[in-house]
Structure formats: C-alpha cells, structure tokens
Write the structure tokens for this entry.
Amino acid sequence: MAKEIILNEQDGPSGTWSGPIAIGGQAKHIAVAQQSDKLLAAVFIGTDDAVYSNMQVQDDLGIRWSGPQGLDCAATDLALAADYRGMLNIFFAGTDGLLYWKYQKFDERERPWSDPVAMGGSAMNIVAAKNADGRLEIFYTDPNDNHAIYHNWQDGSGRWSGGTKLEGEAMQLTSAMNSDGRIEIFYTARTGIAYHNWQEYPGSSDDWHGEKSLVSDAFGLAVGQNEDGRLELFFAGSHNNEISHIWQRDIGGWSIERSMGGEGLELTVSRSSTGIMELFYPGNSGRLFHNWQDDPNGSWHGEEHLGDSGSRPVSIQNKAGGCALFYLAL
C-alpha cells in the first residue's frame, strides 16, 4: 500500500528536528541520495508502480522541494546513487522483473533523464554503491536463481561489466565502504544467518574474498561507518525484533554481539558531519525511535521516541550536516 512521504530533519549536526513535513507524493518504496551540491533527492515508486523523482532546490527563499515528477518507467524495487560527477543513477526492477538503469545526463542546467537501459537478468533487493575511484557498482539477488547474489560494475569508461554471480544467497542486502576504500556487502540468508563479503583491495570489483558468516540470527540489516572508519552493523533478532549491533575492532575482526535496547525490524543509519552516527527505526507498534552516539566512535545514548509513527524509513546526511529521515506515514 502506498503512503504519504514524510521528512523529519535536523537543522545542523545534533540539531533541532523540524518535525514531520509531507514533501509530496505517495510511495510504496523510497530511495534518497545527495546531489552534487549536497541538496537531497528522493526517488520513489508510487501507487501506480510508476517511478517519480522529487528534488530539493535552493533559491533566495531557501531550500524547498520541487514536487514529484514522473520518470516514464515503472518498478517493483529500486536503488539510487550519485556518480563521481554528482549525476543521479536509478537502478530498478521493472514490472517485468528485469533489471534496468536510468541516469541523469550531464547538463549543468537541466540534467535530463535517459531512457531506461536494460542491464540483463532479473533482480530484487537492489543496492547501489560507489567504488573508491568513483565507479558505480550494484548488487542484487536473482529470484529466478534461488536468490543468488549478483553484481555489475562500471569500468573506467563507464561501461557495465554484465551481471556476475557472487558467493551466497540472500533475502536482504546492504553495503558500505571500509576506511581503505574496499566495498563490503552484508546480507541475510533464508536461515537468518548474516554473512559478509568484501573486495580484496579498493576497486577490485572482480576480486572478492568470499562469504563469511557474521551473526547467527539477524534481520533488517543496516550498516554505518564510524568517524574513524570502522564499520558497525545493526540488526534485529527473530525474538520480538530485539535490536543488537556488532562493530569492527581497532585490532581487526568484529566485536561480539551487544544489545542496544529497543525493538524494530526496519533499521536505517546515517552520520552527521560531526561524525556521530544515528539509528532510526519504527518499533513493533509503528512508533518511530532514534538512538545516537554520545560522541564520535563512542557509546550509544539509548532510544527515544521521535514524535511520529511510520514505516520504511531511510536516512541520510542533509546539506546542513544533520540527519534527514524519510519515511512513509501510517
């Protein structure tokens, strides 16, 4: 069911929250990214399965939203990423189940969108990432191949490699970049076991370590990066969606699992310009909560209610350096 898109954002790092504001449009699924000027862009799947964009613009009156614009395609899933020039790229599963790419053409004024480009194969659980050298790389599962994990990456000229299978099968995927520039993916198998797999060196799109188990009971994965570069993985357990986390240690490897308090299955995390990570999630009742680090790389404050209810949250750093939380109204 499609629902109204709501934004609640801080006016700066660890700043005051704006309160819930409808930005226009109703959605089943939403993805967000920063534009080249750090203004935000939202792309979403509407009530009719059509794909829409809504962009922040800035003028003498301040920052505002342009309003939903149809992009002449339809989708069941999508991901959004900006390339090295700040141009937006949408990767989506069409209503035919196939994988497509649609991108902004480089034009300083208009930035027109391309026609959809077929990328080959079927796709679900699409995730888009950017390599250390600026090349985009996408990860997805193929529902016609037992949810096997595939990836596809750009070469130095921007051409795509074609879908290549990675080790493992997944029901959910997410990704992050390590401090040295290596992309790492995290995913949950049907058994509930969470795995990870990583590039052997920065930009090694065709050279991956191979999957390794990480947590025995994990759903709703979200991964963030501490100010010092260490990754931190957040997840819900199968018992009442209790939220826990693990993190990379200074000496290498991962910590043991620790409870964060709180319950929720739809997790999202972002980091302010001062280096503090903040976790957002609807509780089991749909009420929205957040939890944040007291200091960069530090311990966690404890959950607090954010003052609204919603679903399908997505968070990102805004131009002011604070966190921006998008979600669908209940």
Remarks:
- The chain has a mean pLDDT of 96.
